[in-house]
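so the lab meeting is tmrw and i was supposed to have these ready like two days ago... anyway. pasting both below. for each one the top line is the aa sequence and the line under it is the structure tokens. i havent really looked at them closely yet so no promises
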Amino acid sequence: QSENSDKSSAESDSETEPEQASVYHKLLATLRTSPESESEDDDDESESEEAGESGTEMDCEESQENGEAEGGEEDENNMPDKEGIFLLPTAEQTLGEEQADGEDVSCDPSHGVTEEFTDVKHESEFSLENNFIEEESGDCDADERRSNPFKQHMDKEMEEKEVEKMSTLSKSSSQIKWPRLGQLTFSSTSEKQKTLKPDKEVDMKQLHLHKPLEVTWPKVNKQLLSSLNKSCDSCFTPLQRELFWIMNTYRDLFYPERTALTNGEEIRLAYCLHALNHVLKANAQVLSNNAKRRDRKPGVDTDEYRDQGLTRPKVLMVVPFRECALRIVHNLISLLEVKSDKKIDVSNKKRFKGEFGSDPEEKPPNLKRPEDYEAVFAGNIDDHFRIGVAILQKSMRLYAPFYSSDIIIASPLGMRTIIGAEGEKKRDFDFLSSIEILIIDQADIYLMQNWEHVLHLMKHMNLLPLDSHGVDFSRVRMLNLNNWSKYYRQTLLFSALQDPQINSIFNKHCFNYTGQVAVRNIPQIGSISHVVVQLPHVFRRLEAESLNSVIDTRFQFFIDKVLPEYRDAIMSHTLVYVPSYFDYVRLRNYFKKEELNFVHICEYTKKAGICRARRFFLKGEKQFLLLTERFHFYKRYTIKGIKNLIFYELPTYPHFYSEICNMMKATDSGVDATWTCTVLYSKYDAQKLAAVVGIDRTAQMLQSKKNVHLFITGEN
């Protein structure tokens, strides 16, 4: 395997390397797994990181001599083992598999990860068909049913004309400002669109929560309220109250201000409450109808008992890391435990904690990273997982087979590997056919992993299943039989930023008949205000005829107008920050062809190559350093020696702009009047530009038809 890896490295870094790897080859790379070798490589990178951050260049030199011997002057970049993913050490790579009967075994690394485990022991216990509801948990009365958001949404019977209208008519929109969420845009194809106004005080009865949740929610959320120093008079934080108010109307929701550092846990708890409320109500309806069917007289029409989808899974939660799944399951368990002294029965809990938990001792103790980095990458950050969760009254079943699950929690990569590609023999996506709530949390992180996995998932949502999977068609709702599931599906999308690709998911893959709500706050002050280095920022506008031509136009503008100004030896120590990996490969190939004096670091560069590149750049032996955004996202190294900075494109994360600029203060020589910062942008970068310089400056810059040289100092 080592020889093949070396050969791959040599081939991938030849000057004839294609500038864009095909999607097919990227997928093949993604599906490659070698847990033991990956774990060893990642451990080495952590050691290299400690050496690099300590500031002792001698350590890097020793790493170069004792580490990879090949590569000559530079340690060439490998093609990805996992496209779009640069993994730190993960717990999953060293966790063992349990026995097939579901009994726990010790997590011995020697066991390896051989096959996916599913719980087959508790199938009949958690079967909806074989169980009946307890009397005290019975369904609501007639008046309650009419005002119940769940019943209102799922029981609405649409006509074909309405569906045709939704497919052909454009959406009308209206705007309103809410106290906490700010500017909201309501959009719908309905002519009678209503805008919502949240109540100042929350009456738990008006929320129509499933009865146990009315008791457990205040207790569970009280811990969060106290940690945030919020008033305990309300059961919700102001943010939770407004978000849940929208969720509970079953409208689609896009909230682009979710951050792991500030409001992440607030939001996670809110959507866990909504998802669990939905599942408990749906299952209670099925179990109640089971009892009615059992007691009915022979020959009675059973059409009134249509209460299910074509498959059982109702909620899909897409999260980036195992730690996120761990916290979600913890929230669900807490919300189900009505009495603190009586724990609910959770099957396979020990196994789950072993595979999704993390060992605090695994993290190197001396690594210093920004607070937001620590919050995002806390716990087990393996990004390849999926798990089914079944909930029945007062019990929870982890590792339930998907077709016996109510909730599926998975990463995009975990979904991608089970959905498969066209032509593959072993692929499955029928379990997505009747998803009623889709929650995509931390969507911005998927831009740093592989956005193709998200798009692939969305294309397979709510399709008619290829197999019946033992469904009782007399119990299936007409909306599912008519293949109208996508018009009833609620999508909750949470992200840390506005991005065209994320916006596209919300605008092109969400068809909810009740409409959509998007938070659209415009940043008044950009991240440039956090730059502490006295530095002139020159924003250079490039003119592109269309969105499709921006990539080529930017490249041509860079090599014709920008690069010639930096070729002179006087302009040494120039860092070129490149958000797109494909742009990075294109620039690297051009720099090689022109025989420029440069080094390069991307998310696939080996530890020895990183050390060499940083050392050569710091000492001025190499004039240019090409750096990818995803390397910065996953590592956050401080690059020393920067005197000239070029943003080939505006960063995806606004705060990366100030972080990269502030790296200049790490230069030993102190502030230099000759330092420069150049940023390339086009009219299609309006959102990113506003996040960096603020809305007022953005309006001025986009109104100008010429290249704009805008000088700003960090104090402004």
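ok protien two:
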Amino acid sequence: SGASLRYSTGTGGEGSEGEGAGLGSSDSGGSGFSLAATALPERRRPGGGRPRYEVVRELGAEEVRWFYREDRKTWKPFIGYDSLRIELAFRALGSSGGGDGEPAVVEPVCVRSGLYEVDVASAESYPVYWNQTEKIPVMRGQWFIDGTWQPLEEEESNLIEQEHLNRFKGQQLQESFDMEVSKPVDGKEAIHSLKLSRNHVDWHSVDEVYLYSDATTSKIARTVTQKLGFSKASSSGTRLHRGYVEEATLEDKPPQTSHIVFVVHGIGQKMDQGRIIKNTAMMRDTARKVEEKYFSNLATHVEFLPVEWRSKLTLDGDTVDSITPDKVRGLRDMLNSSAMDIMYYTSPLYRDELVKGLQQELNRLYTLFCSRNPEFEEKGGKVSIVSHSLGCVITYDIMTGWNPVRLYEQLLQKEEEELEDRWMSYEEQRLLEELYITKQRLREIEERLHGLKASTIAKPPVLKFKVENFFCMGSPLAVFLALRGIRPGNSGSQDHILPRTICNRLLNIFHPTDPVAYRLEPLILKHYSNISPVQIHWYNTANPLPYEHMKPSFLNPTKEPTSVPDSESASAAPSPTTSPVMVRRHYGESITNIGKASILGAASIGKGLGGMLFSRFGRSSTTPQTMETGKEGAEGEDKKATTVGTPPLPHSSSGFLEPTVELEHRIDFELREGLVESRYWSAVTSHTAYWSSLDIALFLLTFMYKQDQEETDKSNLDTI
């Protein structure tokens, strides 16, 4: 259904009509409307606003502006591309859809970079990719308040517009456009007036319209100021403008999405449903500011989508609630809604339900996005995942396919090997051989069965997309991997914990005082426990050094490595899994102190409770030698290493590998602590402080825009 709009200028009493250029059709959902506007003689406002025409006529679709309001805040305007298509849908809805006189059925209009749809009939907007209980109201703006350009309420606006057309339609607008728009109307009598329910409107000329409040206090103030010699308009009137300050065009559209980011929440979503949607909105808004400042030269766009996987799961129903005592019920309910998620995940009964819930939601969102943006896959669009807290562990297990059943099979195999080593009677040996033969036969039958299934039905991949970047924020993943038996190796490759075939780049972001976060690099190469994480640049740093050019630095560069007697050097030197490490500083305070501070912020610390449970037995045990030197290290824990350079060659007895063995890419990235930040308070708040950080937004976009930025720079160099 298309709506074609033409206007006449009426100059000199004659209607002149010219052919206008079609403004195109919508191409991102919604109805396929087209707009043809005739070439009209235009006059612009002195300040450079939207065009003005010479006679009063009905407002064009490009002069109307649609608005939306979230969280009961002020009305925000849609961009021109969205507003124009909503207005065309609105006009199509008002026209009859056939001989029976029924209104035309109009499809929802896709707006705000495709994240929302507008139902013009109900004047509401709703999200496409997630559920939201509160609908977002939308409003059609025709008359606007001077200065703020906020729209008048639609009912009043319609009455004023109808009265304006009845009284002034076809009349000539004032000739002089060089005068100030807000010139005083002192001494001018109102040529027309309209009474509204709580206000009244005076027309002093065709385009000098003022709104007055009819409240008693306003009337008294108006009377007093007029007796003092002030005019009615200048004392208490609000000037109104007909039509928005900017003309809506289809060229005012958002850039193409080239990268989507799935934002996965951790524990506590049951306690505060919808929190991940608000957190993702904060991250999206922060990223928009960074994009405008640093990446405005790129024609592409990164979109953030929340992944809310917890609310749809039934798990145990209300069994845990029924066995919870009534005393301090509030605190118990908070723990049931937050820390209980960790216990669910470690339970063999409910773990698969959590994994399947997140996996299905990721695939659903990707399929829905591609169906609404078919060019995304065609143009090689990329997908990254940002996970928080426990969400990092579940996402990792989905990507790698890790399952505790594997550990059980390894345990059984180990027991069988131990059985072979001990002495057995003839009868035991015979029964054991029969058991082996039976198991071997069972495996052959299972393989044949799987082969038949694979030939008829191809097993779909766990995820329907390749993960480009996996960003972990405040992640306890390292603790889970350590408890699963992963130990440092001899290679500096990310493949040791996450193969590059599954995910191109793994990045671990954490705040120094986050009690739930742990480092990943020492699980790959052990000596990285004494190399400081990469410091994330401040948002406003001028010309920061690229992360790939930053050299590693020791946490304690002046410390001598722990000496080992010659008799022990043979066993200690070659193996990175058994060698001691140099004394390292500790970021956080003791768990006891954090527990005292948790009274002030129980809700925040509750989300990190699960990580704190691991903090005591997650740390590697220290030798008596390192304990003694640890006292000296504690005294200088606040003194960060300032020397940046290649690490010096360590003593051979320290157990370090040769300096040539380094990580292919750095994985641990640390936020900088605030200058006046309290460690006690930040230990409580830091775990949930990642979402609105400009530093993190710039960090994420730096890696996601890396290839696009390099291609743009290369093309600029080629042009030069």
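from a quick look at the 2nd one: The first strand starts at residue 22 and ends at 25. Residues 256-404+464-550+665-711 form a domain with the Rossmann fold fold (CATH 3.40.50). will dig more after coffe
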